[in-house]
């Protein structure tokens, strides 16, 4: 019945358009094609179909918007700056809008099919940002128009999309999120089958080219959308990382991000008292940026831990795939220290296992890995690179200074929730203050990550390398220079227009001296 309606409707419109052309002597020059149809239609037919709500208009990327019925078709403009080293990210709506999201969805579908001709089912999740719902709907339209089925898992943390791909053996995933960036940003994190990460080199560049050269798909079978609730299976999975929890009092700062939804669900029924901070999902981030790497965003957590005499505190970023800890006195614990702590736990069970850490991490990390019988591997910054390296080296665990923690038994992906649970298990087992457990690992003095706005970042890095050419130099990520009693790394940000410095010394005096030298060079002043 539908096919007959479609044929009759199209023929009637064609005749109306033909008569109009005969009367006016004009023809519609622009041609369109409805999804799944082999023939083109004119502007007039396209307008007519939309006015009567033709079924395929809902998933069409080539349709004329109502505002354009009496105006020339607007040219699609694409900002190539949104395609980053390990995700796609930009400001909404100036750099990423619904139209861009649809076209990126089609390009992603083409990419997935190029990598795996049998690809059919793609997981899509989103965070709580105000723009995420409309961008997700547009993305899904693009994926379905290009013939892929979408498993829509709704409002979730980013790590849940990795779990869904790995656990249910789907063909890939897209998470609509801008992670820790401010409210005006949004974007996409992508992975392939088996939760294999997609970086610029392994796919984002290809998606960028496909989107720039965009052509609507022709003759595709439309995909379908299936809603799926994975929280029960996800909870069962992450609880495998902590089997011996006792009563602990913990302050959790969700930063109005996704941890406000995931933490209550995971901890329901567990002997852990959660003291919540900013659990209301709010993509405008009314209390502070959901970026725990900035000390100012940790202040409320530190205060609450001291007020409530909690055993520890933890802060999550916006999409809840990163977390940072404070001890019972409210002191911030570097994520590299947590990496060293968790590495020891894994190596108690698996002697000789490989452990990853990033180029910004303290000397204490490789030292603790070796002392515990493991094999340390240094890797460049970025979740796509860390996850790929974890898989390649078959490492059991890895950690980044930014608060990402990676697990072999989490489909070689990161999970802030698993790291949180493991820390709680350590405290449950040791039964001493968190500060006592951490104290032996605080044996060096670090600046933390310092960010700079520099006009010519490459030139500045070259200048710094020349100034410190007598040190041991490594180019794995930016430039790392090591001396016997101090080291530093200078690198360009993968997500922002910044130059980032990390420096560590064996004493506070050595650290401060090195910091002064670097700051003088970066800021163009005499030391």
Number of separate strands = 24
What is the strand content?
15-25%
The first-level CATH class name of the largest domain: Alpha Beta
Q: Give the overall average pLDDT.
A: 89
For the largest beta sheet, what order do the strands appear in spatially? 3-7-6-4-5-8
Find the CATH superfamily of the largest domain: Alpha-D-Glucose-1,6-Bisphosphate, subunit A, domain 3
Class by helix and strand content? alpha/beta
Q: Which shape, going by the Cα principal axes?
A: globular
- Fraction of residues in helices? 25-40%
Q: What is the name of the CATH architecture of the largest domain?
A: 3-Layer(aba) Sandwich
Q: Which spans have pLDDT < 50 for at least 5 consecutive residues? A: 1-10, 12-29, 65-74
Helical stretch tally: 16
Characterize the main sheet: 6 strands, mixed
According to CATH, the fold-level topology of the largest domain is Alpha-D-Glucose-1,6-Bisphosphate, Chain A, domain 3
User: How far apart lie the N and C ends?
Assistant: 81 Å
Question: How large is the radius of gyration?
Answer: 26 Å
Give the number of domains. 4
Notes on the protein architecture:
The protein is 37% helix and 20% strand. It contains 16 helices and 24 strands. Helix 3 (98-115) crosses helix 4. The protein starts with a helix and ends in a 5-residue tail after the last helix. The model is unreliable at 1-10, 12-29 and 65-74 (pLDDT under 50).
């Amino acid at each position: 019945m539908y096919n007959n309606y479609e044929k009759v409707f199209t023929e009637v419109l064609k005749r109306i358009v033909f008569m109009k052309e005969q009367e006016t002597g004009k023809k519609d020059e622009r041609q369109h094609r409805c999804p799944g149809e082999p023939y083109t239609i004119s502007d007039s037919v396209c307008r007519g179909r939309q006015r009567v709500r033709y079924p395929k208009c809902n998933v069409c990327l080539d349709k004329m918007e109502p505002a354009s019925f009496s105006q020339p078709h607007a040219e699609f403009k694409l900002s190539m700056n949104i395609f980053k080293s390990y995700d796609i990210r930009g400001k909404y709506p100036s750099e990423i809008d619904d139209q861009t999201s649809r076209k990126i969805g089609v390009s992603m579908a083409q990419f997935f099919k190029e990598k795996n001709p049998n690809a059919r089912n793609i997981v899509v999740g989103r965070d709580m940002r105000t723009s995420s719902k409309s961008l997700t709907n547009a993305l899904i339209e693009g994926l379905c128009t290009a013939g892929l089925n979408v498993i829509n898992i709704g409002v979730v943390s980013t790590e849940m999309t990795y779990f869904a791909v790995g656990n249910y053996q789907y063909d890939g995933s897209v998470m609509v999120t801008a992670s820790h960036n401010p409210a005006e940003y949004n974007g996409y994190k992508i992975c392939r089958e088996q939760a294999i990460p997609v970086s610029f080199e392994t796919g984002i560049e290809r998606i960028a080219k496909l989107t720039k050269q965009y052509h609507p798909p022709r003759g595709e079978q439309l995909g379908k959308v299936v809603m799926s609730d994975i929280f029960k299976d996800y909870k069962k999975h992450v609880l495998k990382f902590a089997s011996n929890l006792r009563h602990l009092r913990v302050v959790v700062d969700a930063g109005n991000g996704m941890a406000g939804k995931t933490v209550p669900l995971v901890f329901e029924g567990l002997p852990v008292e959660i003291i919540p901070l900013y659990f209301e999902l709010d993509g405008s981030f009314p209390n502070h940026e959901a970026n725990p790497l900035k000390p100012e965003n940790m202040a409320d957590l530190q205060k609450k831990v001291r007020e409530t005499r909690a055993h520890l505190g933890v802060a999550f970023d916006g999409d809840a795939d990163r977390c940072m800890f404070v001890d019972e006195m409210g002191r911030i614990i570097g994520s590299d220290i947590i990496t060293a702590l968790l590495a020891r736990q894994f190596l108690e069970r698996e002697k000789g296992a490989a452990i990853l850490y990033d180029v910004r991490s303290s000397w204490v990390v490789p030292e603790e890995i070796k002392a515990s019988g493991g094999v340390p591997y240094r890797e460049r910054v970025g979740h796509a690179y860390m996850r790929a390296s974890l898989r390649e080296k078959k490492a059991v665990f890895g950690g980044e200074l930014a608060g990402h923690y990676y697990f072999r038994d989490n489909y070689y992906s990161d999970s802030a929730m698993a790291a949180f649970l493991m820390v709680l298990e350590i405290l449950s087992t040791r039964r001493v203050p968190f500060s006592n457990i951490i104290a032996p690992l605080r044996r060096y003095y670090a600046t933390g990550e310092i960010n700079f706005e520099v006009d010519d970042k490459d030139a500045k890095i070259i200048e710094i390398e020349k100034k410190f050419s007598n040190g041991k130099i490594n180019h794995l990520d930016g430039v790392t220079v090591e001396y016997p009693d101090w080291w530093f790394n200078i690198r360009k940000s993968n997500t922002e227009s910044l130059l980032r410095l990390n420096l560590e010394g064996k004493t506070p005096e050595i650290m401060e001296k090195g910091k002064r030298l670097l700051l003088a060079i970066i800021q163009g002043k005499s030391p």
